[in-house]
Amino acid sequence: MSVFNVYPLYEVTPVSAKGIYVYDKNNTEYLDLYGGHAVISIGHSHPKYVEAITNQVAKLGFYSNAVQNPLQEELAAKIESLSGCKDYALFLCNSGAEANENALKLASFKTNKSRVIAFKNGFHGRTSAAVAVTDNAAIIAPINAQQEVTILELNDIKSVQRELEKGDVCAVIVEFIQGVGGLDQANAAFFEQLDLLCKANNTLFIADEVQSGYGRSGKFFAFQYYKLTPDIISIAKGMGNGFPIGGILIHPSIEAKFGMLGTTFGGNHLACVAGLSVLTVIEDDHLIENVNEMSAYFIKIANTIPQIKKTKGRGLMLGLEFDFEVANLRKKLIYEHHIFTGGASNKKVLRILPPLNIDKEHIHQFFDALVAALDN
Question: Which superkingdom heads the taxonomic lineage of this protein's source (predicted)?
Answer without folding.
Answer: Bacteria
